[in-house]
Amino acid sequence: MRPETLRHGSATAALRRFHERPAFTRGQHRVAYLRRIDLRKVLHQFGVAGIRRTRHITTGLMNRCWEVVAHDGRRLFVKQVLELSVTQTELHHYATRALNELGLPVPAPMLTRAGNTLAETGEGWFAVYPWSAGIHRPGPQLTIRQAADLGTLFAKIQSGLREVMPAAEPLRAPPPFDPAETLREVEHFRLVISRLPGLSTFDRFVLADLRDREAMLAAAPSPGPLSGPGGWTHGDFHGLNVLWRSGEVSAVVDFDRLSCLPYASELVRSVMILFTYGDRRGMAVEQVAAFINAYRAVSPLTGEELRTAANHYWRERLGNLTQLERHYHHDEKARDHIFVRSGILLSWWWRHPEQVGFLFSNTDPRSGESPAGMV
Q1: Domain boundary among 67, 96, 130
Q2: pTM summary value
Q3: Percent of the chain with pLDDT strictly greater than 90
């Protein structure tokens, strides 16, 4: 997208075509991911002549990416677009370039010789970014100040999107939750596992997880409707999409899930991914409190809005057995770790209602006040 098109009009035009089909179908995605790419052809369109070395980046599940060192010494990040349509990607590029111009630590895609942010070769569609230096840091390892700074930045990105994006489309409603359907799926996967010739560590975890889910489903309350403000959000704000350098955030990357969502829902989802230990310790509650308090200082949300969003998120995760479908029926195991982390967190959440309630109401786990209505 050309610099002169960074205005509401062009974004609105792209928004009308936002739900186009992805650049590749599921089968084409597999073929494209295995294909050897001539990155010289890609970089030539961005005015980069010659490559010293390349490194395929294996972190991440949606697209195909490389670190490239050009002959002139520049370090670059090259992404092949696989999961999204060209129009969706252009809209994301519009958003990130605009956020970058506002001074936020969001890398802007480079422009081709023709002034576009995407280049097409016979091998697909590609974007190129200046390399963002930094490391990923798990949320529980952040200091309280760093967690608060991250919450402030998260809110500023949302306010920046409000400033630069066209009027938001209707907010997504949470997916319908049918406990009876989930129970049927629980029984189905129990039967599938019972027919296996031997059980792996993952199979044993799943059986224990299914027992827990059955108990939780029997007592899961029904939350009220979502309320509160919403709009364009990052959509996938977690530790692997945040880079740190010298104790500060150096870059927020990967806006591929840019979406219109209730802000409370996006805040809850981000917290539950950012600050989870991934084991029986559950969540880093003091970092969570610092993050949420700092966010609310910039973008106010009420305790009731947060509690409702938290209950919706918990129920949605409780009913989400998509990865078991992938694992047992499609032999796709790359996301097994996500199911394990999610299952452990669901169990911790269920067994620590007071801590969860504090986090998503007063956001002070030491306040001593017990909120009502949390699972």
Answers
A1: 130
A2: 0.84
A3: 65
